[in-house]
Amino acid sequence: MAIESFNPYTGKVLRRFRAFSWVKTERILGQAHRAAATWRESSFVERRRLMHRAAELLRARQDELARLMALEMGKPVADGRAEIQKCALTCDYYADHAEEFLRDEDIKTEARRSFIAYEPLGVVLAIMPWNFPFWQVIRFAAPALMAGNVGLLKHASNVPQCALALESIFHDAGFPPATFRTLLIGSDLVEKLLQDDRVKAATLTGSEEAGSKVAATAGAQIKKTVLELGGSDAFVVLADADLELAAKTAAQARMVNSGQSCIAAKRFIVDKSIVKPFISQLKTHLLALRTGDPLDEATQYGPLARPDLADELTKQVQDSVQAGARVELFGGQAKPGTALFRPMILANVKPGQPAYYEELFGPVAIIMEARDEADAVRLANDSRFGLGGSVWTRDAKRGEAVARRIESGAVFVNAMVKSSPEMPFGGVKKSGYGRELSYLGIREFVNQKSIWVAGEAPVAKKKVE
């Protein structure tokens, strides 16, 4: 089996890699398992030094890594540099805070001392997607390594060069080689890895279908998983919102990574009193965005990562239109089999259409009219997904109250949804479970061990004859 690095802008194969055999994969797993026994004994001082060094290398190599993303999955280089800088920030964050997050936590009981200790699990398998090929990995790897775990990366098959570059970052930073390895394998070997007792836990960012399979296999082995799956984020615009700000941010939020982001705004739920001017302004902002060669600094959005992804999105749009959706902004593919997909706006989106229930992973903005605030909340929650969302209103207290009623892992008031190292990231419903980032993220893959220490045992008195 060959793993291909494919340029979606030129349509050309850049490199081919021979996929690892199970023999090679199992040998690397054995090395990782042995490394876990020693890495868990390393000090936070040592881990901190190496993780700060990884951050330095990320910043030093940001141009070449951004170029790699542009070539392998079509991300504009300016966005790629921003992604690498965010990765470096997160490495520094966990280097600085891991010891604090994993410090013994005293609990008051009748014991002389009782506390929670946070101890590493061992080998963690990460199954990662192509859309943010460095960021998705770093937000797992930085906390996992700082907690004393070791990582095995099974990256998406269309970004093998990014996957190998990640391995080089950690190795060049001085981490023992077996503590982080990239596995160039197909999905066929994931099940065997999950069934191996040496793999202690798994994390997956990807589709609902992939998450379900990984969770089922890991569950059969009584093995911990964290899943970050799809999203169809609601962007709720109430009648009293700052319309100009909301519409401008809506365009940015829909076009994050050419619309290929789990937390890109996808469903724009707008009060009926302002829906027409909102669509008009959103259309203006979307049309102003520049596409082109991802290697060009002026490019604001590139192609989708693969032609088949654009074909699939086109079908979702066509099926929705046939079921009654109305096109407010024409765009999409120029012809089948091409990766470039220009922004579109769909209105009159109703139940029964793919656009209503499915995640549209690309630059298609879905407009839903809400009668009032209560109806807006109802529409926001009428989704099997629950990853992110935002609320737009001039009344911050009202926005907070509405945010509490939306079923989602994160809701932003008058701001675009984003991830950051300080805040927990994850979803509810079919968007997955568990959390990445913040102190919650580093505690996902540790044994939260309760330790109870009683008082000194009384000395037995000697019996007098």
From TrEMBL:
UniProt name for this protein: NAD-dependent succinate-semialdehyde dehydrogenase
Entry similarity comment: Belongs to the aldehyde dehydrogenase family.
SUPFAM superfamilies cross-referenced by the UniProt entry: ALDH-like (SSF53720)
Coiled-coil residue spans: none
Keyword Chloroplast applies: no
Residue ranges of every copy of the Aldehyde dehydrogenase domain listed in the record: 3-451
Keyword presence, Oxidoreductase: yes
InterPro entries membership: Ald_DH/histidinol_DH, Ald_DH_C, Ald_DH_N, Aldehyde_DH_dom, ALDH_GabD1-like, GABD/Sad-like
UniProt KW keywords: NADP, Oxidoreductase
Species this chain originates from: Hymenobacter nitidus
